[in-house]
Amino acid sequence: MIAPAAWLLVRIAIVYDCLYPYTVGGGERWYGELARRLVPRHQVTYLTRRQWDDGEVPKGPAGVEIVAVSGGRKLYAISGRRNLTAPLRFGWGVFWYLLRHRQRYDIVHTCAFPYFSLLAARVACAWGGPPVVVDWLEVWTEDYWRKYLGRLGGRVGAVIQRLCVRLSGTAFVFSALHAERLRQEGYAFEPVRLSGLYAGPAELLDSPAVRSPLVVFVGRHIREKGVAAIPAAIAWARQTIPNLRATIFGDGPERAAVMAEIERLDMADVITCPGFVPWEQVDAAMRQAMCLLLPSRREGYGMVVVEASARGTATITVRDADNAATELVSEGRNGVIVESARPEALGSGIVAVHGAGPALVESTRGWFKENAPRLSIDASISTVEKTHARVAGEQARRANK
User: Fold this and answer.
1) Contacts (Cβ under 8 Å, ≥6 apart) of 10
2) Which of 11, 47, 264, 381 has the greatest number of CB atoms lying within 10 Å of its CB?
3) Which phi and psi angles does 165 have, rounded to 5°?
């Protein structure tokens, strides 16, 4: 470990089993930005799964060392749930890597999920490795575990999560919902709240006040996102807005169900599904759209709500016990929260946004201007850096006694 006085540079290992842009999601974007913004001042290594071809130079933030500690490209099973083997192999790889390189790093910054990597980092720490700080993007309830993995599997998942909570020293959270759940699971300290993840400019982005009758969805096509509910919602709303269209960006295990719904409703000329596309294409659609539709029943933060608001685009999302994105929607100002993902509920939200017209665009812009400082990623990066220095410094002082 380096001496306490030398905290101008901290040697950091970021641990996450997915790497942007090979996998696209909120967690991947957070860790990509974290690495990119830390590397000008620190030494940063990103430990992950191999998601690129042999011999290929992995894509990642410039200056960041990318290390694959396991293989296992197939992350999801046919059911749309995560495979068990991939996180087990990744956790094993993290353990052996950190054990072999225990003197190379001052701090390990890991995502709690999928748990085995957190357990591995904590065991490596106990065997002389670097201290660990943990991001709790989400904390699941026992009821949600049962829905996700069934009665027996859900019970095992809940027990492992509770063990990981108790093994977490310094923990970061990204919403009030999951801060409270972390405490309920037995976390003994006060979690560090990171409320800002928005990496775009603090200024409002140019967009028209009068919007096209276009609804957009941006995200992975997984069951929790509720993406398969969108076609029926568009069909319902088109009874009032005949020229309404939708673009569903992204891809994932639920894509086949989405396409089947579009075919069932005979809406191939109304709804387009271009998959994962360059951000410029998503940006252009979001600036023109009258709303972002996020029918998700589970969100750890909801970054896309902020990105839409920066363009004056309101959000429609669902009130659910697991949806932290509702913390980013002020009803009537930058969006609408509906009570379920049923077609009539989502459709009514779309009709309400359409009826509000340019006034809602202006109030959404106002909401973003008011909240941009606290939502910026810059404040979160500063908090992370200070926390890294404090935790690594405490470890160094103990080692020097």
Assistant:
1) 42, 43, 106, 107, 385, 388, 389, 392
2) 47
3) -60, -45
Q: Which residues contact 291 (CB under 8 A, 6 or more apart)?
A: 215, 216, 308, 313, 314, 315, 316, 335, 349, 350, 353
pLDDT tens, the chain, 401 aa long: 333 334 468 999 999 999 998 888 889 999 999 999 999 999 999 999 999 998 899 999 999 999 999 987 677 665 556 667 889 999 999 999 999 999 999 999 999 999 999 999 999 999 999 999 999 999 999 999 998 889 999 999 999 999 999 999 999 999 999 999 999 999 999 999 998 999 998 899 999 999 999 999 999 999 999 999 999 999 999 999 999 999 999 999 999 999 999 999 999 999 999 999 999 999 999 999 999 999 999 999 999 999 999 999 999 999 999 999 999 999 999 999 999 999 999 999 999 999 999 999 999 999 999 999 999 999 899 999 999 999 998 888 887 77
DSSP state of 203: S
Q: Are 206 and 312 in contact (CB under 8 A)?
A: no
Report phi then psi at 291, rounded to 5. Answer: -165, 155
> CA 244, CA 34: separation in Å to the nearest integer?
38
- DSSP H or E stretch at residue 122: helix 116-126
Residue type, 307: E
**What are all long-range contacts of 395-400, with beta carbons under 8 Å and residues at least 24 apart?**
395/1, 395/106, 395/130, 395/131, 396/1, 396/2, 396/3, 396/4, 396/106, 397/4, 399/1, 400/3, 400/4
Instruction: Please give the domain boundaries of the chain with CATH numbers for all domains.
Output: 11-196+376-400 (3.40.50.2000), 212-375 (3.40.50.2000)
Task: Give the pTM.
Answer: 0.90
Instruction: Give the pairing type, strands 132-136 and 170-173.
Output: parallel
Contact in structure between 26 and 130 (CB atoms under 8 Å): no
CB within 8 Å of 372: residues ≥ 6 apart: 198, 202, 310
Would you give the end-to-end CA distance of the chain in angstroms?
Answer: 13
Q: What is the CB neighbour count within 10 angstroms for residue 143?
A: 12
Q: Which residues 6+ apart lie within 8 Å of 43 measured at CB?
A: 9, 10, 11, 12
